[in-house]
Design a protein that fits this description.
The complex is a heterotrimer of chains A (366), B (396) and C (307). With 366 residues, chain A is mainly α. Chain A has helices at 7-29, 31-56, 65-78, 89-111, 116-136, 176-199, 202-212, 214-219, 224-250, 260-273, 278-307, 314-332, 341-347, 353-365, and strands at 79-80, 85-86, 157-158, 161-162, 167-169, 172-174. Chain A is 70% helix and 4% strand. In chain B, strands 8-7-9-10-11-14-15 form a seven-stranded mixed sheet, sandwiched between helices. A six-stranded mixed sheet of chain B has the order 2-3-1-4-5-6. In chain B, β4 (111-114), α4 and β5 (135-137) form a beta-alpha-beta unit. Chain B has two domains: 31-158 and 295-365, Response regulator (Rossmann fold, 3-Layer(aba) Sandwich), CATH 3.40.50; 161-287 and 372-387, Response regulator (Rossmann fold). The chains are: A mainly alpha (366), B alpha/beta (396), C mainly alpha (307).
Chain lengths: 366, 396, 307
């Protein structure tokens, strides 16, 4: 990443746009859509975390939502009447991230030897195991309150500043959804920053080497075991942070929020957006949070107008579209909608490699 | 990567959002004359997804109550009132539920009827409470919903503790069960009602000989039922819904067990009989409230419902109908539809509904709600007995 | 004692179904080295098609034996076509792509099939008609129904037939050749694409039979029924040693027994700490344990780790 003179004004404009975005959304569409934007940011964080595992290191993880769950439950258990604990956010969030990281290593360690399809199915099993445990740890000792979930979770607050109350600043009212937007935006930018730095670091290059050819990477002196574990741990950490924020934002967590379908959704974001490319993953996250909303409001009334009744439930239509999108993207645009240059090169058929390399030479010359 | 690449993303984002804009507007309120007071009632239930048919039923019940009130010409503090329904889809998803709640609050609704499930009702209740909007759930049964201490949270449905207690006592006292096996489907509903059932049954002197579990997607119960068989219970209780209840009772009979089989309101559906066939005979299930044909206006409600929506009542429509009317009654007594003004009276209203006589306790739960037991006899659900609750106004 | 015996019967019945489905996974894996994630959904489609045909035929007052046979045939045919289609559309174009690609399309196919089924047949649980009276038999204290006896017998028959087909026929020989070394097989005049298509169709036919058996046994059909069954069957295939036909059969039966005995006894053994609520966890633990400690499975000749 380069910051040349031309990109600076762009950067400033972009930052300003992000800052006023909630107010634009608010005036056009209302608070409800600001809340949707908040959720979009949480999902982007998750997608970026999964991107490290799937996009960078090439390890297909189908149980990623488990780390989100670990973060959310850590926050919920330490900040709710469940145990009467009300720890502050600066203690709970890092702890949630740490625990998620621990679970990431726990999952990574036994599965290190596995590749591709085996890894996918084992991670899927791991995600389900976590969910089943959370659903059942209400007896004989009540830890997670089982399927009832944990309610009355403390809202996010820092020092005396509560994010769930309206604050007036410079004569402008910042409501809860706005404040959460800025908080989540801050964390998302942090995650993006870390991802960017990792991508171009020694570690990031090692991940990509493993993705391309594990044996060769090993031969080049990369400690594949540690590097793979690190990918799991980093990805899980991001998931844990996002989970903690989710619990505080929502005020309620229950195991039904952490189903296998959620893992698939996040995978869709990464795959459709562009594996390994941060901008692509962000795009994927935004699209997959907003499109279902548009679908819900668009597909139903449209059918009503065309056929006079709802022929196909918009919800199943939406899932059908996701399924089709996964297939079609893999068939025709395997690197996603906004691919990373390197990934694109790798996923192109062999004949064009020469052309690709040629392009790269020209790129370098610019 | 350079940041130049992000700007098209931003443009796209704004474009997508503004494209969605036109579609999402709910009906715009246009008061025709200034003397008319417009009261907006928000409603939320899953209108898409696996429970869409039950959610639509809720919406229908709410709509009927609002149409009735408009036809009747309700006045509040001397002003004629026009009620408007703002119905939103929560997709059975806790996240979507909070978004919907935010939208209803934005639209400045005077009260909310919803949501359908406990999993959506609880997270949404925080938003309604923060904004002081009264909320009456027609069907959420988790104890936690009203235990959060929110003054805005009410329900017109017996909670798990109330229903589980009646079921536990019915099993031991009326059906004479001494040794009981309990199964649940590990959903919030199934686990909640099963745990309360266990407490009540134990308190009445029965022994829980086996506690087994399944999931809300399973169809094979052979091994858990075999394990139960080894404990020789007199009665098997299942906390769950009819999709599992039907194959369960079938497999129970296929294992040669002749014990009684009891379920909560999740079992009281025609589908249970259809899918279990002859094995369903003798199954018991409960439903909060009094049988509709025993209540004043209840039978009338069901015929009008069928005439208007061309289908029988699915499950909770009568409860939605009652919830709206309780809310209107409180508004009339307060002489105002302002949430802050009528909320204190909502807890004190007594209303003769189509499901029961409705009054709330200090938490917002239904006070002494009646619960009716039904049994499958000759392939049909038949009311056996109504227990608890304030004496209903009998129609005949 | 009769309870233990009953649990073993339950496990055997369940295990026979797992085994039939597991064969589909293992055959495809043996040839392509690919997990066909959508295989569980093929089972579901088989059950759904059988349901529809059976309903129509019974309504047309066809004799019940004929109706059952016809619906089974139609279901098998439909699933074979589906299996062929899945391979052509989702897997063949990606045969030389990175390994992640076909895996993701497989997940996509699974989602698409589930939701299509939901649109066609609805979300509700359907009762599967039972034209015969399903008699109960007592066997050493355990009770077994006619349908369950039929399940075990049919599963055994199908597996015996499959073994004959693969080890004694010309087609079986080309299948084994492709599994061993595709390019060498191609040089020897084997049409690889045809063999692969045929393998998918064969696995799908077995899946259709399994779908029919499951529906008849539980008397219920649902659009979601294939997913968990598929996962369990895959676990069975891994347990027995993926790519190994005998292993898939053994793995299926062993997994069925583990689940049924586990769910039945873990509550008593752990003093109520664990219960049947962890039934689904057993399969996943078995899967992880096998992959970690014995990646080649119980009977595996192949190395499980194929990059």
């Amino acid at each position: 990443m380069k910051f040349n003179h031309q990109s600076k004004p762009m950067l400033a404009a972009f930052a300003a746009a992000l800052l006023v975005l909630p107010f634009i959304i608010d005036s056009l569409l209302g608070h409800g859509w600001v809340r949707i934007a908040d959720f979009a940011l949480l999902y982007i964080m998750l997608a970026l975390g999964l991107n490290i595992v799937v996009g960078y290191a090439g390890l297909l993880d189908l149980g990623y939502i488990a780390f989100f769950a670990v973060g959310a439950y850590t926050y919920a258990l330490l900040g709710s009447p469940q145990f009467g604990l009300h720890w502050p956010i600066w203690a709970v969030l890092p702890l949630g991230a740490l625990l998620a990281c621990f679970f990431g290593v726990l999952l990574g360690a036994p599965t290190l030897r596995l590749r591709g399809d085996y890894l996918a199915i084992v991670t899927l099993g791991f995600g389900e195991i976590i969910r089943i445990f959370m659903n059942n740890l209400n007896a004989p000792v009540n830890i997670t309150n089982g399927p009832q979930g944990i309610s009355s979770i403390d809202p996010l607050s820092m020092g005396g500043f509560s994010f769930s109350k309206t604050h007036e600043l410079f004569g402008v009212d910042f409501t809860a959804v706005h404040l959460h937007y800025y908080l989540f935006l801050g964390f998302t930018l942090l995650v993006i920053f870390v991802s960017l730095r990792l991508q171009h670091s020694r570690i990031g290059r090692a991940w990509m080497a493993i993705r391309e050819d594990e044996v060769a990477a090993n031969a080049m002196g990369i400690n594949t075991r540690n590097i793979k574990l690190l990918a799991f741990a980093m990805g899980a950490t991001f998931g844990g942070i996002s989970g903690g924020l989710f619990a505080g934002f929502q005020g309620f967590v229950s195991p039904e929020s952490f189903s296998l379908m959620e893992s698939v959704m996040i995978l869709c974001m990464v795959v459709l957006g562009g594996m390994g490319n941060i901008a692509g993953v962000v795009l994927g996250g935004v699209l997959l949070v907003i499109l279902p909303e548009a679908f819900r409001h668009g597909a139903g009334p449209l059918q009503q107008a065309l056929f006079g009744k709802i022929v196909v439930d918009p919800e199943s239509l939406r899932m059908l579209m996701f399924g089709l999108a996964l297939i079609l993207v893999m068939l025709w645009r395997p690197a996603g909608l906004w691919p990373s240059t390197q990934r694109r090169r790798e996923l192109m058929p062999d004949e064009t490699v020469a052309q690709q390399e040629q392009d790269t030479v020209y790129d370098a010359a610019k | 990567m350079s940041f130049n690449k992000i700007s098209p993303l931003l443009v796209l984002l704004v474009a997508v959002i503004s494209a969605g804009c036109g579609k999402t507007e709910t009906q715009v309120v246009q008061p025709k004359d200034t003397d008319e007071l417009v009261v907006k009632i928000g409603a939320s239930a899953p209108l898409t997804g696996p429970q869409a048919h039950i959610g639509k039923d809720n919406e229908n019940g709410t709509r009927m109550a609002i149409d009735d009130a408009n036809a009747k010409g309700v006045t509040i503090a001397g002003k004629k009132v026009r009620f408007e329904l703002l119905s939103e889809d929560d997709q059975t998803d806790p996240k979507a539920a909070t978004i919907v709640a935010q939208k209803l609050v934005d639209a400045k609704v005077n009260g909310v009827i919803g949501h359908l499930n406990s999993g959506t009702t609880i997270p949404a209740s925080r938003i309604y409470s923060d904004n002081g909007i009264p909320q009456i759930s027609p069907s959420a049964t988790a104890v936690a919903y009203t235990a959060q201490g929110y003054k805005t949270a009410f329900r017109v449905m017996a909670n798990d503790a109330q229903q589980g207690k009646v079921l536990g006592e019915y099993a031991t006292k009326n059906l004479g069960a001494k040794k009981i096996a309990v199964l649940d489907d590990r959903t919030a509903y199934g686990q909640g009602i099963a745990d309360e059932f266990v407490k009540a049954a134990q308190a009445s002197g029965a022994e829980i000989v086996s506690r087994q579990y399944t999931t809300d997607k399973a169809i094979d119960f052979a091994s858990v039922l075999t394990s139960i068989k080894g404990k020789h219970p007199d009665l098997v209780f299942f906390g769950g819904m009819d999709p599992q209840g039907a194959p369960m009772v079938k497999q129970l009979r296929a294992l040669g067990m002749k014990t009684q089989f009891l379920m909560g309101d999740g079992g009281y559906t025609p589908k249970l009989i259809e899918n279990a066939g002859a094995a369903a005979e003798g199954t018991y299930a409960s439903l909060p409230g009094v049988p509709l044909d025993k209540m004043q206006g209840g039978r009338d409600f069901s015929t009008r419902y069928e005439a208007q929506f061309k289908q029988p009542i699915q499950l909770y429509a009568p409860y939605c109908y009652d919830a709206v009317n309780v809310m209107i009654a409180a508004m009339q007594q307060a002489g105002s539809a302002e949430p802050a003004k009528y909320l204190p009276l909502l807890g004190k209203v007594v209303h003769d509904g189509v499901t029961a006589k409705i009054a709330f306790d200090e938490k917002g739960d239904l006070k002494g709600g009646a619960i009716t037991m039904y049994q499958v006899r000759q392939g049909k659900w038949q009311a056996v007995e109504t227990m608890g609750g304030t004496a209903p106004v009998a129609a005949h | 004692m009769d309870i233990l015996f009953q649990q073993i019967v339950n496990g055997l019945v369940q295990g026979s179904v797992y085994a039939l489905v597991a064969l589909g996974y293992t055959m495809v894996y043996g040839i392509l080295g690919l997990i066909n994630f959508a295989h569980g959904e093929v089972v579901m489609v088989g059950a759904m098609v059988a349901l529809t045909v059976l309903q129509i035929l019974l309504a047309a007052a066809l004799s019940s034996v004929l109706a059952v046979l016809c619906s089974l045939m139609v279901a098998v045919a439909a699933c074979m076509a589906l299996g062929y289609g899945i391979e052509r559309v989702a897997y063949r174009p990606l045969r030389n792509a990175p390994r992640l690609a076909p895996l993701i399309t497989a997940i996509g196919v699974s989602i698409v099939l589930q939701n299509l089924a939901m649109m066609i047949w609805g979300r509700e649980y359907h009762a599967f008609p039972m034209p015969f009276s399903n008699g109960l038999h007592e066997l050493g204290g355990a009770i077994i129904t006619d349908v369950q006896i039929a399940i075990v017998l049919i599963a055994l028959l199908m597996m015996a037939g499959l073994m004959l087909l693969i080890h004694r026929s010309r087609f079986g020989r080309s299948m084994r050749a492709v599994a061993e070394n595709p390019s060498a097989a191609a040089l020897m005049g084997v049409d690889i694409n045809r063999v692969i298509s045929a393998t998918f169709m064969l696995g799908s036919a077995l899946a259709a039979v399994a779908g029919f058996m499951v529906s008849a046994n539980y008397g219920i059909v649902h659009y979601y029924m294939g997913f968990m069954l598929g996962l369990k069957a895959f676990t069975a295939a891994v347990l027995g040693g993926i790519g190994n036909l005998r292993g898939a059969m053994l793995g299926g039966v062993v997994l069925g027994l583990i689940e049924s005995l586990g769910a039945g006894y873990i509550g008593d053994l752990s003093g109520g700490f664990f219960g049947s609520n962890y039934q689904d966890v057993f399969a996943f633990f078995v899967l992880i344990a096998v992959l970690v400690f014995r990646p080649s499975g119980l009977l595996g000749e192949r190395v499980a780790e194929r990059a």
